[in-house]
Design brief:
The protein is of the alpha/beta class and 383 residues long. The chain is 31% helix and 24% strand. A seven-stranded mixed beta sheet has the order 1-14-2-3-4-5-6, sandwiched between helices. It has a five-stranded mixed beta sheet with strand order 7-8-9-10-13, with helices on one face. A hairpin with an 8-residue loop joins strand 11 and strand 12. The radius of gyration is 21 Å and the shape is globular.
């Protein structure tokens, strides 16, 4: 336990399941297979240890093919706490996180990461619980010209990696705010963005006070390392959202999130994994860590007393494969970096095996959904 929180499910298994055969069988049942660690050399491990992060590296191979070479890509998921108190000046909070992320990205580079994704709204605390506009709106920035883009662009170019940077976006042309994931390519070029499709109205996630549903559809970014997409946080609760990224050709879908244990932890290990299976792609669930305390009290609308703390954000970031396998999760309490080498050939191999796209009956469901959204819709109930 750390600060009253379990470090990780994997830590419990390691501590209490001592028999090697039992542990192997438990991994097969829980994770869909036994884990294969990825050798990333000593430099990355030493750097990770020096900066105090939970660092894990795995590989997920696909079957060898006669007509295609392996398409190996190293995916990286970063989870982190805020660094200084929320009472500190905004620039101090932001810059402290910038320095922390730069440290972790350096470890990812030493481990050979090709595509890196940060957590939802990574540049500051997850202040939406407060419903206050000031000073928090000062974290909002331009997707293409903001301070975070300048940092991420430089890091992407330096390490020749694609980086997904989820931020609070200020669109100055229309004077609107969005929850946005910015994609930067390996040259540091702004490649595009995706705005969050589904906005929560549950618990302390008062996000509609700040922004509304996105208007960018389900874009897929055709990078040199593969076709990637971003399903931001609450969108993971909507199967059709996951599906549309797959229909648009995504091979990897990142799910940068900020979610707390009492609300969603029973769902966390299921949703992204299920999406990978159903849509024949790799999914990457990323969640921040820690409990964040704010200067002023806020209420949750549930009759409970007002409070100043929001959390616990339980981390547990993981990567799932289209064949049903998933990696162990990162820590529930510590900053972390998960590296996973995947073979994108697995997407087609699993699609050919299960034929979900061929058996999906899209035409039938399209017709049914069209009927459902009609005001004259009548449920098909037989009595």
């Amino acid at each position: 336990m750390k600060d009253g929180e379990v470090k990780s499910l994997e830590n419990i298994i390691k501590t209490h399941v001592s028999d090697a055969e039992d542990r192997s069988e438990m991994e097969r049942i829980l994770y869909g297979g036994n884990h294969t660690e990825l050798d990333v050399g000593t430099a990355a491990k030493e750097k990770a240890n020096a900066i105090g992060i939970d660092f894990k590296a795995y590989k997920v191979p696909a079957a060898a093919e006669q007509t295609r070479s392996p398409r190996l890509v190293r995916l990286a998921a970063i989870q982190n706490k805020i660094v200084v108190p929320t009472s500190a000046p905004i620039i101090e909070q932001r810059d402290a996180i910038f320095r922390r992320i730069e440290q972790i990205v350096e470890v990812a580079a030493l481990a050979g990461a090709n595509v890196v994704c940060l957590q939802e709204c990574w540049t500051g605390p997850f202040f939406f619980c407060t419903r206050e506009k000031q000073p928090w709106m000062e974290f909002a920035e331009s997707a293409q010209h903001g301070e975070s883009f300048q940092l991420i662009s430089e890091l992407a170019k330096r390490h020749r990696m694609v980086i997904v940077s989820p931020i609070l976006e200020r669109d100055d042309k229309r004077s609107t705010i969005w929850n946005t994931a910015v994609v930067v390519d390996q040259t540091g070029r702004y490649m595009g963005k995706h705005r969050k499709n589904h906005i929560p109205r549950v618990g302390d996630f008062n996000e509609s006070t700040y922004y509304m549903e996105g208007d960018t559809g389900h874009p897929v970014f055709d990078t040199i390392y593969g076709k990637i997409a971003v399903n931001i946080c609450y969108g993971r609760h909507h199967p059709l959202n996951w599906m549309m990224f797959g229909l648009n050709g995504a091979e990897v879908v990142f799910n940068p999130s900020a979610t707390v244990g009492k609300l969603s932890e029973p769902l966390w290990g299921i949703e992204a994994r299920n999406a990978a299976i159903a849509n024949h792609y790799f999914s990457v669930g990323i969640n921040r860590v820690g409990t964040e305390e704010f200067p002023n009290q806020f209420t949750s609308g549930d009759g409970a007393p007002a409070k100043t703390k929001f959390g616990h954000f339980y981390g547990s970031s993981y990567i799932a494969a289209p064949d049903g396998y998933r990696t162990p999760g990162l820590s529930r309490v510590d900053d972390g970096l998960l590296i996973t080498e995947v073979d994108l050939n697995m997407c087609q191999q699993v699609r050919d095996k299960w034929l979900f796209n061929q058996t999906a009956r899209f035409d039938m469901y399209a017709e049914s959904l069209e009927e459902y959204i009609d005001e004259e819709f009548e449920p098909q109930i037989i009595r």
